[in-house]
Structures are given as structure tokens and as C-alpha cells.
Specification:
The chain starts with 11 loop residues before the first strand and ends in a 40-residue tail after the last helix. It folds into 2 domains: 12-174, Beta-Lactamase; 183-397, Rossmann fold. By secondary structure, the protein is of the alpha/beta class. The relative contact order is 0.08. A hairpin with a 2-residue loop joins strand 16 and strand 17. Helix 10 (295-303) crosses helix 12 and helix 11 (322-332) crosses helix 12 (337-347). It has 13 helices and 17 strands. It has a 9-stranded mixed β-sheet, sandwiched between helices. The structure holds adenosine-5'-triphosphate and magnesium ion. Residues 94, 174-177, 186, 189, 191, 214, 216-222, 290, 313, 361 line the site of adenosine-5'-triphosphate.
Length: 437
């Protein structure tokens, strides 16, 4: 896409005062403006040779060698993520966050560190955010000051403009690993205990319904994609997502993405509506990338009406918090806690909980979903310290030997009724102490 006239301002892009602390040289704003003008006279995509030609046409006395040297940074400033592009391209970078022109943070897998990148001034950051949003086919302006979208190269963009972000434009960029990670790679990386891999394979093969839970950036989407990659290749998988992120390695995948309305709110298509459409598309497996609103009602309804093997992610800090999170989401869709318990206990089988801390991202719990009286519960089956009370039940559902829990663990024994056996709670219907049903 040619984008020669975005009006990004600021004295320089990518380090205002010559070489930055990490050796980056700035791109002179005057030069940038001239090249934009030169580019605006041609058509077609802005490729490196096109930028070099535009530089020559800009009458800047750089010579061919100078033009070749400056062209990549100019190209990034014109069409990529500007001075941020070099960070996004760095192997191992997962997040790039902009809090202001001189406050750029980067996560290379070991937490956030300040990056020595300068973006000029607030106007330049805002222009960059607007241009990135436009590249994702979305608008970002005073009337529509927040955007969550996926850039053409797969990077997820979140941007907020003032006054919603009072101190200035905020950008949050999430870089997916170029090729994702399959289950073997997650095991090799120490993110999934080796002994749990068979359990996870069986969860997918037996078409249990599961949610991957965890805190922000704990690896939920990555784990979900890796598990989808274990599905039978003959299955038709329908993905419903807000900003398309999941890239499962499967031959038969179709994707529905939510659409955000215009300023008047006209034209929006929400995830809940998309889940209902997905059911008309003959899915063998329905996937909701992230349950964060009323779509939870439609997903649970689908799972309760014969759509086995459905899955998704949900934000929760511990596996035990998942019921409360689902209740909160159900409330957004008008489901009261009791209705939610009834729906979720019979729709969902398993929760896979992830944690991210200083040691990295890892799966810390496999749990079974059930009910205890009127209460939705998530009961540990596998934990870092060994099998939990629901292991025996999970093993039975997966045709595994309950007496042989994954390495280093010994068998536990709390019983959950199998999926489908949950019945609507009746007022005044006391559950036996400790019983799950
Ligand atoms: N086990 C892992 N090892 C290394 N990198 C990982 C691992 N899991 C995820 N990542 C990387 O960490 C980043 C966050 O992962 P992911 O998007 O899957 O997290 P998430 O929990 O879905 O985040 P969000 O809360 O934003 O939805 C991505 O760049 C991803 O490629
Ligand atoms: Mg995610």
C-alpha cells in the first residue's frame, strides 16, 4: 500500500538527534517529507527500489551509496512500523509498547525493558498509530480513539489516542512467533511438562471441550493454536476471533472476524453473532479465539447442542478463578449465575491453565469443569506438584490408566459426573458435602 501522505511530523523518526543510544541513526523529517512527495507521484507498493528511486528524485544530494544506506530506514518510516520496525523484526521479541515518543518498551521474552528508540514527538506517535490502524483497515481518530486490530504481517495492534489516554498516544504491539509453536516445541521449551503431552493429545482426539486460561500474555493463544494443530486434519475448523491471531497448522480452517462499526455504531458484527453464524457453516470444531463478552452464552449453547470439541481462551489469573470469570461474562449476556453454572458445567470439560512469571510461560494446571451443588467448579487433575483430585475422572474420560498419572505423580480420586450428566440445579436441592455433580 502506498502511504506517502500521512503527515507524520516531528523532527526525526527513529532517534531525533543523530545516532541514538543504541547506534540508530535518525531519519531527517525534511528528507522524509520530500520522499513522500516523490512517492505520491508514482503508484504501486512502496518497495526498497521504489524508495531508492524516490530518494534520487527528491534531489537530495546523497549519491547512490547514500541513498542505499538511508532507504531501509526511510522505507520503515513510510510503510512499516517506523522506528519500531527494527524491534518488531528482532528475533524473540514478543511485545513492543509505546508510552510516549521517548518511552518505548520491549519484551524479548524476559520481561519489559526500556528500548533506546525515539519517535520524535507526540504528533509523530499519533500519526504512526493512525497509519498502522489504516494499514489494518481500521480508523483511529478523535471520534474513534481506540483500536484493536491485526496488521498485515500478523502483528496485533492496540492503540489509544488522547484524551482516552491523557498522557498521549499509547501503542501496544504483540508479535506472534513467525511459525507458532507446536506441542512438541512447547514441551521442548519447558512450557508444557513432557508427561502431560499425551493427556493434551487425548483431550483433542476425544473432542473434549476445553478453555485455555491464564493471565495476559501467558501464551493462551499459542497453546490453543498448538492444540488445534493436533485435530484430525479431516475436521473443518471454524475460528471466530476479534482480531485474527490463531494460525493453526490444519488444512481445513475458515475464519470469521468481528467487525467494528462506524462512529454511529452501524455495521458492527460482534463475536456473539459470529458464533451463531459459525454454527450454520457446518463446523466440526468451533473455536472462539478469546471469550471476553456475551459470546460466551452462544459458545456454551453451541457446545450443549452437539458441537463437541469446541474450545477457546479466557482470561483468568488462576484456574479456580475461571468460574467467576465465566459468570461475569455470562452476566454481560444476561445469564444469571445459576443459568451459567448449568450451561457451563455441561458444556465444558477441561480447563488448561497457564502462568507467566520470571521463569517464563508454562502450563501449570489441567483441571476438570463440573459443579458442586449450584456452584460451577474447576477441580485440579494435574498440577506441578502431582495429580489433583480430578485426575482419576479425567483419566477415565481419556481412556488413560488412572493408576498411572504422568511421571512423578501419584493418583488422586475426587469424582466428577461425566459431561452431560450435570442437571439443572433445583432450589433447595442440597449437594452432599464435597460432592461434585
Ligand atoms: N511457550 C512459549 N515460549 C516462548 N514464547 C511464547 C510461548 N508462548 C507464547 N509465546 C509468545 O509470547 C507472546 C504472547 O503469547 P500469546 O499471544 O499466545 O499470549 P496470550 O495469553 O494469548 O496473550 P493475550 O493475553 O494478549 O491474549 C507471543 O509473542 C508468543 O509468540
Ligand atoms: Mg491471546
Amino acid at each position: 500500500m502506498k502511504d506517502a501522505g500521512t503527515g507524520e511530523s516531528g523532527r526525526a523518526v527513529g532517534g531525533a538527534d543523530g545516532p541514538g543510544p543504541d547506534g540508530e541513526e535518525g531519519v531527517d523529517e525534511r528528507l522524509l517529507a520530500r520522499v513522500r512527495t516523490a512517492l505520491s507521484r508514482s503508484s504501486g507498493p512502496v518497495t526498497p527500489p521504489v524508495v531508492v528511486d524516490a530518494l534520487r528524485a527528491s534531489a537530495e544530494p546523497l549519491g547512490t551509496a547514500g541513498a542505499l544506506r538511508v532507504a531501509p530506514r526511510l522505507g520503515a518510516a513510510l510503510v512499516g512500523a517506523g522506528a519500531l520496525q527494527v524491534l518488531l523484526d528482532e528475533p524473540g521479541v514478543t511485545d513492543v509498547l509505546v508510552n510516549g515518543p521517548d518511552a518505548v518498551w520491549v519484551d524479548r521474552g524476559r520481561g519489559l525493558r526500556r528500548a533506546h528508540v525515539r519517535l520524535g514527538d507526540e504528533a509523530a506517535v499519533r500519526a504512526l498509530a493512525v497509519r498502522l490502524a489504516a494499514g489494518a483497515g481500521r480508523r483511529l481518530d478523535d471520534a474513534s480513539p481506540c483500536v484493536d486490530a491485526r496488521l498485515p504481517d500478523g502483528v496485533r495492534l492496540h492503540a489509544v489516542l488522547p484524551p482516552v489516554s491523557p498522557a498521549g498516544t499509547l501503542l501496544s504491539l504483540r508479535v506472534p512467533r513467525r511459525e507458532g509453536m507446536d506441542l512438541d516445541q512447547l514441551v521442548a521449551a519447558g512450557s508444557v511438562p513432557a508427561g502431560w503431552a499425551l493427556v493434551l493429545r487425548r483431550v483433542v482426539e476425544h473432542r473434549l471441550a476445553f478453555l485455555v486460561s491464564g493471565g495476559t500474555s501467558s501464551g493462551k493463544t499459542t497453546v490453543l493454536a498448538s492444540l488445534l494443530g493436533l485435530a484430525d486434519p479431516r475436521e473443518r475448523v471454524v475460528l471466530v476471533e476479534d482480531a485474527g491471531e490463531l494460525q493453526p497448522r490444519l488444512p481445513h480452517v475458515v475464519r470469521l472476524e468481528a467487525r467494528h462499526g462506524n462512529v454511529e455504531g452501524v455495521g458492527s458484527v460482534g463475536l456473539d453473532e459470529l458464533v451463531r453464524h459459525a454454527l450454520r457453516m457446518r463446523p466440526d470444531r468451533l473455536v472462539v479465539g478469546e471469550c471476553r463478552g456475551a459470546e460466551v452464552r452462544d459458545l456454551l449453547a453451541a457446545l450443549n447442542t452437539g458441537h463437541d470439541g469446541g474450545c477457546g481462551t479466557v482470561h483468568a489469573n488462576t484456574a479456580a478463578d475461571v468460574p467467576a470469570r465465566l459468570e461475569a461474562l455470562g452476566a454481560l449476556a444476561g445469564l444469571d449465575a445459576r443459568a451459567l453454572t448449568t450451561q457451563a458445567a455441561s458444556a465444558l470439560d477441561v480447563v488448561l491453565h497457564l502462568r507467566r512469571d520470571a521463569r517464563g510461560r508454562r502450563m501449570e494446571e489441567v483441571a476438570l469443569v463440573g459443579r458442586r451443588g449450584d456452584e460451577l467448579v474447576v477441580v485440579p487433575a494435574l498440577t506441578a506438584s502431582g495429580p489433583g483430585p480430578a485426575w482419576g475422572d479425567l483419566a477415565a474420560r481419556l481412556d488413560l490408566d488412572p493408576g498411572q498419572p504422568p511421571a512423578g505423580a501419584s493418583a488422586g480420586g475426587e469424582r466428577l459426573l461425566p459431561r452431560g450428566a450435570a442437571r439443572p440445579a433445583v432450589a433447595g436441592d442440597p449437594a452432599p458435602a464435597g460432592a461434585l455433580r
